[in-house]
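Obj: model holo form, ligand = magnesium ion.
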Amino acid sequence: MSQQTRLLELCSLAVVRYGANAQIRQCAEECAELGAECLRVHRGRVDHMDAMYEECADVLIMVTQLAVLDPGRMEHHLEQKMQHLEELLGVRS
Ligand SMILES: [Mg+2]
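Output (holo structure tokens):
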């Protein structure tokens, strides 16, 4: 089983077990933790690089759980953001 498939399965189970509201709160908390670690690394604290990536993993897991809650809405916004980035980068076909 690929890591992506395991992630989706685990996130689906987590949303069912803990409920949407709890996972939305947890997502906010993990995003705040990632922000703090990004700012530490940005200020030159390279000793926090591993912590930053650990928080990236937490946020990826929580964002995936939010995506599982409403895949259609997630896909819609992801597509819009990707198109915007393509325009910024000048790679839009
Ligand atoms: Mg965390």
